[in-house]
Each structure stands twice: as C-alpha cells, then as structure tokens.
Design goal:
alpha/beta; Nucleotidyltransferase, domain 5; 5-stranded mixed beta sheet; 6 helices; 5 strands; about 35% helix
C-alpha cells in the first residue's frame, strides 16, 4: 500500500481493522542461552485463547480493541460499534482483509445499517506490506505472548488488556510501529 496522505480528506477517518489470537502457550522467540544449549519452555496441555479484535486510526494512531473468547460475528460488531461511536460526525473508511469473519451475515447487515462506513477490501494473503495493522500485531505478540506461558485464560486476558492500556495508548508509538511516522 502506498503512503497515506498525512491529512485525510475532510470528514473521513481511515481505520485499519483485523484480529489476532493469543494463546496460553508461548510464541517462542529469540532467547539467550549458552552455545549448544537450548532452553526448555514448559507447555500446558490446554488450548485456551484470547481473540483480540483491533482497529487503528491510521492518521492519529488511536487504537480500539475488544477481547473475546471466539471469532463470532457479534464480537466483531462490538469493535465496529466502538469505532462508529468515536467518530459520530465523520465518514469512516475501513481497511480490511478478506477474512471470513469480516464478511459474515452479521457484519454485512451491520455495514448496510451504517451508510457512513465504507470498506476497502485488501486482497487475500497480502501480508504486512499492504496491511499496516500486521505490524501492530507483531508488537502485541512481542509484548504479550513471546516466551511467556500463561496459567489461565483470565491471566492472558489481563495481560492483553494491559498492553492496550500501557502501549497502545501512546498514539505516536503506534504510528511509528506501523511505519507511518
């Protein structure tokens, strides 16, 4: 995706949306260890997860989030409602990949009921080159799941929520992580 204009067209907000999964078991990343030795990470035989729905205003760096147990369409709508409530007098352009949760019946009905919202659908599997929010998810995983084993789903949810309170509230840092500053 080419560089965004620094000043959006009057009355328009450009928001990139997506979701990621955080699981109880760690995403193994770079760790220091003596040469020839490999650190062991304990694994639990549990499969709990936290689905993190996120949206970022690509001009201001303002973040929106909703944490859920599933990818259900109703959960996606909670994030969309947050975005619309934040910009009641403006048109909103959503940048979205073609994930199946973005095109289910509930989301389609919601979009039809909100004419101030337009969608720009990214091609499938476009990766972080065309979808800036993928850089944000990398940052999220670095801070929340890399090399960290959670004992409970509640602990995972708490740490994910803390990330949004501590890091994602720094709008300049968010834009920098997205490569937009």
């Amino acid at each position: 995706m080419g560089r965004l204009q620094r000043q959006p067209k009057a009355g328009w907000v450009i928001v990139d949306l997506d979701e990621c999964h955080a699981r109880l078991y760690p995403t193994v990343s770079h760790v220091w260890a003596p040469r020839g030795e490999y650190p062991e990470l304990p694994l639990l035989d549990v499969h709990g997860k936290c689905v993190v729905f996120g949206a970022i205003d690509l001009h201001t760096g303002r973040c929106f989030s909703h944490l859920a147990n599933s990818l259900a369409g109703a959960e996606q709508l909670r994030l969309l409602d947050q975005v619309v409530a934040a910009y009641p007098e403006q048109r909103i352009l959503l940048i979205w990949d073609n994930g199946p949760t973005h095109r289910n019946k509930k989301v389609t009905a919601w979009l039809q009921a909100h004419p101030q919202v337009a969608c720009f659908w990214l091609p499938p599997y476009c990766g972080d080159q065309a979808n800036p929010i993928e850089h944000f998810w990398k940052w999220f995983r670095e801070c929340v799941t890399h090399n960290h084993l959670f004992q409970t789903v509640e602990e995972l949810f708490a740490v994910a929520q803390q990330f949004f309170q501590d890091f994602a509230s720094d709008h300049a840092a968010v834009l920098s992580r997205l490569g937009l500053m």
